[in-house]
Each structure stands twice: as structure tokens, then as C-alpha cells.
């Protein structure tokens, strides 16, 4: 039944129900319109995801343009090596095996020079050794007759592949020659098995080896001549940055703990939290430091670094920094402790604690400057002496801390007893706030331990300066 009122978008239809009431008839939405709405939502959602992905990619390229340069270098290497495949003269010159050069570029080209050299040398050595052994085994098997030839080839593949696989579990081999061992297994197996059906095995091995030489040579040339990224320089920069972060984190943590009692000005919350969390970068950089140190050993002399630069010493310095960072992590736990010492007790250790943290941070920053400039510091020993004397003062103040909680004298005790008779709840007046001073004592003890571990960093940096022959700072 049609309603009497006017409807702006058309006629409103109603029906009467058996109980006398009426209901509005709403037309069902067509299936096609539903499908269109679903497709529209999918397209819009996909477009938004693509836009967010492009924004993240753009930000990544802006933050580190070297990654974009590396992509261009890989594209250049593949474009040049592809000429051996597209040009008939060059392709015939390598016996139609130009595809191996392209595969070599894809698997060998890495972001830094050390990684590219490591993979290139491993690939060439593994391929040469496997190729020579495979050709020798094929010659022996070929002279043994058709009956024993597959047995000799199969046995050689089993023994050498098993031995090469086991060598990958040896730590010294795994660190530097793991990729070469894998290439050895792959090449020896392919050449040995294919040689059973290919009559001219030596010529095929020679052609594939030539293409691998071409691919690796091209990768090494491009990565070293066009905007090179040296693993040694990256490791050097990483250590100095981590030292600065460690110093800022140590000084910031102690200042944050005593900020109320000292009344000193503090940075904004965002900047302060960033400094406090700097030690986490030191804790999470172990794998990166070890990887960069191993890759830097493959690199030739570059910049201020000689060919035999003591890269392993950087790993020792990083380990000493992490031992210090663990203490700073525990020190940060005192900031968020449920129990806090009263301000009157904090003031007893306030000045000396801030002095220890300040001088300790200065020592770490001086060490960072020594590594950054590669020049020996003339102030480091005086700073270490000041730090040790400040630590001695902190130990003395820490020993005198119990005097603040001495039991009351006889007259005071009699007075307290009389007060207890009047008010039994006043017995807490003579209770030592042990739980409240535990974080303060812990912080002071950690500062003493941190200064001891900073001496370990000093020793490691001095050993580096002697091995690398740092010059005296003028």
C-alpha cells in the first residue's frame, strides 16, 4: 500500500501485516552493484598498499643513497656481461656458455668490496680445483673401461662431496671459505656426472671457467672503481659511533637518576630517551662487527688502512664495549625501580656519581676520537687517572653511607620508647629504609664496575694503536 506522504527519491511502498501494522518495502541491491563495490574496494586497497610500499622504498633510498648506487652497479654489470650472450662473435668465443658469466655476476656481486672479493675468489678457486679434479677423475675412469667407469665416478663424487661438506662445519673454513666449498661440491658433481656423457669434457670445463673469470673480473672492477663501499671503513665508522652512543648513554642514565636531587637542566624527553637507549646499538652489533671484520680482511689497502690492518682488534674492542653496555643496561633498571631512595640520601652520592659518569664518558669519547683520527691521544692517561680517583671517592662515600642510618643514641632511644608508649605506630621512625637504598647502592656499584670495564676498552684501543701504528697527535 502506498503511503500518503511525499518521498523525495520516489514512491515509498508499504504493506499491511496480519496484526494491522505496516512495513516498508526496501528494494534489494543488485548483484552487479555489489560486485562493483567489492572490486572498487579491492582496487583502492591495493593502490594504497602499493603507494605505502613506494613511500618506504623512497625513504630507504633517501636515507642511504649507496643502496641505490649498488643497484645501478649491478644493473651495469649485467648489461655489460649480457653482450657475451647477445653478440654472436663473443658468444661463440666462449662456446655458447655466456650464460655462466651472467649467473656469476648475479651470485657474486655484493654491496661492499670485501664481500664481492670474498665470493669472487671463492668461486674461482672452488671452480678451478673442482674442475681439475673432475677432469683427472674422468681420465682415470675413462681408462678403466666401460664397466668400472661409472663406479669410479660415483665413488669419487661420494668421497669428495662428503669431505667438502664436512669441511663446512670447521669454524675457520666456514668463516672464510664456506661459499668456495659449496661451489666445489656443485662444480665437481656437475663436471663429473656430465663428463660421463660429454665426449669433450676438457673443452667444456675450459669454456665455463673462462666465463666465470669474465664475470668475476667484471664484478671486481665495477665494485672497486665506481663508488666503492669498503667493509673496513664501515667497521671503523661503526665502532666510533657505538663508542659515542655508549658514552652518551652512560652519562645520560646517571643524570636521569639524579636529576631531581641535582636540579640540573635535562634535555627533552625524546632526545633524552634516545641517548639512554644508545647502549642497545652496542649490544646488537656483534654479528655485524664480526661479519665486517671478516670481509675487511679480503680488501686491498684503501684510504688510511694498510693491507695487513688489524681488523680482528676491532672485534675485541666491540666485545669490551658490550661488556660495558651490559652494566649500563643493568644501571637503567635502577631508573625504573619500584623503590627509590629519598632525595636526602641521593644527595650524599649525587655529586661524586655525576663526576664518575662524566669523566668515564669523557674517556670513552677520547677513545672514539683516537680511533676516528687514527692518532694516539696525549690526554687519555690523565683522564683515566681522574676517573680512577673519582671512583675511589665514590667508594669512600659508599662506605660512609651506613653512618646515615646509625641507631639513635641512649637519650634518643629513651625518648623514642616514651613515644612508643603513647603512639605504638611510631615504631617505623627507627626502621632503616633498606629497600629504598638498594637501587642507589646498586647504581654506585655498577658505576665502579663500569669504570673497571672502561679500562679494558682503553687497553684494547691502545693495542690497536700499536698494531696499526697510529701517529702521535700534535
Question: How many separate helices?
Answer: 19
Mean of all residue-level pLDDT scores:
81
Order of helices and strands: EEHHHHHHHHHHHHHHHHEHHHE
Strand content: under 5%
Main sheet makeup? 2 strands, antiparallel
How large, in whole angstroms, is the Cα Rg? 37 Å
Q: What structural class do you assign from the helix and strand content?
A: mainly alpha
**Secondary structure: helix percent:** over 70%
The termini sit apart by 103 Å
Low-pLDDT parts are: 1-8, 262-266, 415-432
Shape by Cα distribution: flat
In what order do the strands lie side by side in the largest sheet? 1-2
Q: Using DSSP, what is the number of strands? A: 4
List the keywords.
474 residues; two-stranded parallel sheet; two-stranded antiparallel sheet; disordered N terminus; 73% helix; mainly alpha
Put the structure in a nutshell:
The protein is mainly α.
Description:
- With 474 residues, this protein is mainly alpha-helical.
- The chain contains 19 helices and 4 strands.
- It has helices spanning 31-63, 65-81, 83-86, 88-93, 98-108, 113-143, 149-167, 171-195, 201-225, 231-257, 259-262, 269-276, 279-283, 286-296, 312-335, 343-373, 380-399, 410-422, 434-467, and strands spanning 14-16, 22-24, 375-376, 471-472.
- The protein has a two-stranded antiparallel ribbon. It has a two-stranded parallel sheet with strand order 3-4.
- The longest helix is centred in the last third of the chain and has 34 residues, at 434-467.
- The protein is flat, with a radius of gyration of 37 Å.
- The N and C termini lie far apart (103 Å).
- The relative contact order is 0.07.
- The model is unreliable at 1-8, 262-266 and 415-432 (pLDDT under 50).
Amino acid at each position: 500500500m502506498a503511503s500518503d506522504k511525499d518521498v523525495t527519491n520516489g514512491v515509498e511502498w508499504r504493506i499491511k501485516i496480519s496484526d494491522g501494522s505496516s512495513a516498508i518495502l526496501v528494494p534489494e541491491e543488485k548483484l552487479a552493484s555489489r560486485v562493483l563495490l567489492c572490486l572498487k574496494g579491492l582496487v583502492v586497497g591495493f593502490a594504497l598498499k602499493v603507494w605505502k610500499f613506494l613511500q618506504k622504498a623512497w625513504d630507504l633510498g633517501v636515507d642511504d643513497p649507496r643502496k641505490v648506487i649498488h643497484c645501478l652497479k649491478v644493473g651495469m654489470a649485467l648489461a655489460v656481461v649480457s653482450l657475451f650472450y647477445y653478440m654472436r662473435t663473443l658468444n661463440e668465443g666462449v662456446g655458447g656458455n655466456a650464460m655462466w658469466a651472467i649467473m656469476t655476476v648475479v651470485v657474486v656481486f655484493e654491496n661492499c668490496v670485501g664481500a664481492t672479493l670474498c665470493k669472487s675468489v671463492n668461486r674461482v678457486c672452488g671452480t678451478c680445483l673442482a674442475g681439475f679434479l673432475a677432469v683427472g677423475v674422468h681420465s682415470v675412469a675413462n681408462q678403466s673401461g666401460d664397466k668400472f667407469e661409472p663406479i669410479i665416478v660415483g665413488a669419487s663424487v661420494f668421497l669428495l662431496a662428503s669431505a667438502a661438506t664436512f669441511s663446512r662445519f670447521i669454524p675457520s673454513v666456514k668463516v672464510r671459505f664456506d661459499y668456495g666449498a659449496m661451489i666445489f661440491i656443485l662444480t665437481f658433481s656437475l663436471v663429473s656426472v656430465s663428463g660421463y656423457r660429454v665426449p669433450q669434457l676438457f673443452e667444456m670445463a675450459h669454456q665455463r671457467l673462462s666465463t666465470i673469470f669474465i664475470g668475476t673480473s667484471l664484478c671486481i672492477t665495477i665494485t672497486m672503481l665506481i663508488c666503492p663501499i669498503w667493509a673496513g671503513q664501515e667497521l671503523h665508522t661503526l665502532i666510533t659511533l657505538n663508542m659515542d652512543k655508549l658514552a652518551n648513554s652512560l652519562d645520560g642514565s646517571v643524570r636521569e637518576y639524579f636529576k631531581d636531587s641535582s636540579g640540573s637542566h635535562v634535555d627533552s624527553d625524546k632526545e633524552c630517551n634516545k641517548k639512554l637507549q644508545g647502549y642497545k646499538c652496542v649490544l646488537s652489533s656483534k654479528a655485524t662487527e664480526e661479519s665486517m671484520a671478516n670481509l675487511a680482511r679480503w680488501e686491498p689497502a684503501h684510504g688510511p688502512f694498510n693491507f695487513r690492518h688489524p681488523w680482528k682488534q676491532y672485534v675485541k674492542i666491540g666485545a669490551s664495549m658490550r661488556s660495558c653496555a651490559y652494566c649500563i643496561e643493568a644501571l637503567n633498571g635502577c631508573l625504573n625501580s619500584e623503590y627509590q631512595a629519598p632525595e636526602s640520601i641521593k644527595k650524599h652520592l649525587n655529586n661524586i656519581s655525576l663526576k664518575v659518569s662524566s669523566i668515564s664518558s669523557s674517556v670513552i669519547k677520547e677513545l672514539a676520537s683516537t680511533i676516528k683520527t687514527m692518532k694516539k691521544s696525549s690526554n687519555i692517561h690523565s683522564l683515566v687517572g681522574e676517573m680512577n680517583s673519582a671512583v675511589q671517592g665514590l667508594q669512600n662515600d659508599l662506605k660512609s653511607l651506613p653512618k646515615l642510618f646509625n641507631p639513635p643514641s641512649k637519650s634518643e632511644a629513651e625518648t623514642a620508647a616514651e613515644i612508643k608508649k603513647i603512639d605504638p605506630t611510631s615504631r617505623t621512625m627507627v626502621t632503616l629504609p633498606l629497600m629504598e637504598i638498594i637501587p642507589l647502592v646498586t647504581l654506585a656499584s655498577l658505576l665502579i664496575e663500569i669504570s673497571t670495564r672502561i679500562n679494558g676498552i682503553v687497553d684494547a684501543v691502545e693495542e690497536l694503536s700499536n698494531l696499526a701504528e697510529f701517529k702521535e697527535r700534535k
